[in-house]
Amino acid sequence: MIGNKIIGQHEYNIRLLSGDDAIDVQALCERCSDFSELIEGRPPEKDAGKSILFDLPPDKELKDKYVFGVYKENGILIAVIDIIKDYKIAGEWMIGLLMIDPSERGNSLGRKSHDLIKSWVLEEHGKLLRIGVVEENYRGYKFWCQMGYVEVDRVKNTYGNKEHTVIIMNLFL
After folding, report:
1. In this predicted structure, what is the pLDDT of residue 10?
2. Which regions in the chain score pLDDT beneath 70?
3. Helix (H) or strand (E) run with residue 22 in it
4. What does the alpha-carbon distance between residue 131 and residue 100 come to, in Å, rounded to a whole number?
5. Other CB atoms closer than 10 Å to residue 128's CB: what's the count?
6. How far is residue 59's CA from residue 38's CA, in Å, rounded to a whole number?
7. Are strands 10-16 and 77-84 parallel, antiparallel or unpaired?
8. Across the chain, how many H-helices and E-strands are there?
9. Helix (H) or strand (E) holding 24
10. What is the pLDDT of residue 159?
């Protein structure tokens, strides 16, 4: 998954991100403020980029977390993919976030990025991908259904200032 990839008509550099990339991730969060407003009911926090890079679910360690960045030819970060290995059980990988710059949405970058994620997780012996989609995220829900995910549960959760019903979806690999 890592390295230069041709997606559509463009070449992108896809690589693992580190704390050194927090400024790039923060800039992407600010360009994706529509997502933050939908999920949290507020603009992105000043440390949103750092949170994406370092926040973990309970009982997980940083060695279980992979955050990939998709960079355009001009060096601009246009997408972030956050994945947790073996959550909640061995072989189950959770996509915590697939965030795409608004100017890049609708051009198959999401679909192609997901295909790369799926292939990489299979190489790492993953058996299942899991995602949580807030009920109000109609476009996101439609996208994940098109990727083959099926609803397995609904839970209540609070993000920022908003309480949501989160649709838990799985894709068996």
Report:
1. 60
2. 1-10
3. helix 22-31
4. 16
5. 14
6. 28
7. unpaired
8. 5, 8
9. helix 22-31
10. 87
Alpha carbons 85 and 68: distance in angstroms, whole number: 13
pLDDT at position 144 is 97
Identify which of 150, 112, 110, 111 has the alpha carbon closest to the alpha carbon of residue 129.
150
b/e code 2-18 from CB counts within 10 Å (16+ = b): eeeeebeeeebebbebe
Q: Which two tokens stand for residue 3?
A: 């390295």
pLDDT value, residue 88: 87
pLDDT at position 3, please?
A: 59
pTM (2 decimals)? 0.90
Label residue 67 left, alpha or beta by phi (over 0 means left) and psi (-120 to 50 means alpha). beta
Q: Considering Cα of 13, then 143, then 108, then 173, what sign does the dihedral take?
A: positive
Interacting residues of 118 by C-beta distance below 8 A, sequence separation 6+: 129, 171, 173
Please give the C-alpha separations between residue 5 and each of 47, 80, 130, 141, 146, in angstroms, as whole numbers.
29, 15, 24, 26, 23
